[in-house]
Amino acid sequence: MDILAQAAGLVFQPYVLLVIFASACFGLFVGAIPGLTATMATALLVPITFFMDPVPAIAAIVTATAMAIFAGDIPGALLRMPGTPASAAYVEDAYRMTQDGRGDEALGAVLVFSSIGGIFGTIVLVTTAPALAEIALKFSSFEYFWLVLLGLSCAIFVSPSSVTRGMISLLIGLFAATIGIDNPAGQPRYTFGNVELLAGVQFIPAMIGLFAVSEVLRSIVYSKDRPSVDRSGKHTVFTRQWTNIRRYPIQMLRGSATGTAIGALPGAGADIAAWISYAVSKQFSRQKEKFGRGHVEGLVEAGASNNGAVSGAWIPALVFGIPGDSITAIVIGVLYVKGMNPGPTVFINDPQLIYAVFMVFFLANIIMLPLGWVAIKGASTLLSIPNRVLMPVILLFCIVGSFAINNSVFGVLLMLIFGVLGFIMEENDIPIAPAILGLVLGPMLEQNFITSMIKADGSFLAFFERPIAAGLGIFTIVVWSIPIILYLRRRWAGSAASPKEDLPQG
């Protein structure tokens, strides 16, 4: 109890609480701008944390990250421009709900279930961090290969149109991911002598182009009006969420657990967690035909998952000093600067600091509710702005976000190319989401496959020799087999019914 009291004394100080509040506002602002990710919010905070004590420094990063992940859903729901890669998984549903006048309900769902997922992940972090970290450390390139392959399989399930169109979109994303010199062989691929392309297709400009610029182009071509948000009070931000909690309790818990587990895997993170949870939600839903057309169920599960992953990523970071994602990689550097060397010894030497970090996690996810409500109400006014004013401003933000990645005009050019590509894809009913999935997971798939083949000396059987890898591999093959089995069953049922139809009547 003394340790808990010391930890509470470190957190509940006016200065620390003010830092948490200011970081929350900063995270909401950064996350709501397409192109400025939670990782960027963290990186921008690092120089400021040098002047802080350890607890407020970590509190600033934890709070800003949690808020930025949620805030990425706001432009996604209102303008179909996901602020973060994790938001891209369910942006279609959120945007369609806004078009139907249910924007408050969509944003309320991602707000409430992001908070629930974050609190769930924090409880797991507090209670089972060492045990989960041990399991996570058993993941080698073999296990990651199957996990990434399972994530790519989600392209079939997240695609609202046909499987063929989903596969075409996925292959476009995978092809874009092969461009550049960042591959196991270190050979330039499809660069055509362009120095800028050696670094490959940067994910953020490509995502901004596919989602945001294509939407700007569509508004120019069709001159369509912006959807209006229902302000009648019938569907406010919070009132519908109790109904969603009672209707989708399994999805809520499954998304929180999946996000926390995937977040605990080094290198996985909230992006993969959101995509996999959305695909799982659609696969097990009784109304899977509604996914991608304005259905809240996917928002519940994937929204809980992405913030659960934020907490889960801290498990290997705190217990073993291994970053779970790019954000915790930055945080580990800050911890070393502050003299809090992450690893098993920090639990023995500075337990009050660790418990203070846990308390900050709970605080960040709780204050997300009122601050998120304010952000939603403020952002909803965007939809009352005429297109001729709003679209140039959005395009300006897109250019700034794409330029800011590397301070290079090439990022802006990349954004425009992918914007035109996204517009053409959607004109031909080819979904964009699988292409994003291919861009995110393509490099990880190649890297882990080549590494595994080198370890196994070219033997494919090695992918099934480790227990966890074998389990993931068998599960992936089962997932692939389900559509084939269903197709064969329909054919057999059809061929069994045909002879009866041919029998003479009477």
Write the layout of secondary structure elements.
Elements: H1 2-11, H2 14-31, H3 38-49, H4 54-71, H5 73-79, H6 91-99, H7 103-137, H8 141-158, H9 163-178, H10 203-222, H11 241-247, H12 249-263, H13 270-284, H14 297-312, H15 314-320, H16 326-337, H17 344-349, H18 351-379, H19 387-406, H20 409-427, H21 433-455, H22 467-502
Textual characterization of the structure:
It contains 22 helices and no strands. The protein is an all-alpha fold. The chain is globular.
Major sheet description = none
How would you describe the oligomerization state of the chains in this entry?
A: single chain
What is the alpha-carbon Rg in Å?
Answer: 23 Å
Indicate the proportion of strand residues.
under 5%
- Span from first to last CA? 85 Å
Structural class comes to mainly alpha
* Net shape: globular
Number of strands: 0
Instruction: Determine the mean pLDDT.
Output: 79
Question: SSE order, as H and E?
Answer: HHHHHHHHHHHHHHHHHHHHHH
Helix content: over 70%
What is the number of helical segments per DSSP (H or I, 4+ residues)? 22
Q: Are there runs of 5+ residues with pLDDT below 50, and where?
A: 501-506
Descriptors:
22 helices, 506 residues
Summarize it.
The protein is mainly α and 506 residues long. It has helices spanning 2-11, 14-31, 38-49, 54-71, 73-79, 91-99, 103-137, 141-158, 163-178, 203-222, 241-247, 249-263, 270-284, 297-312, 314-320, 326-337, 344-349, 351-379, 387-406, 409-427, 433-455, 467-502.
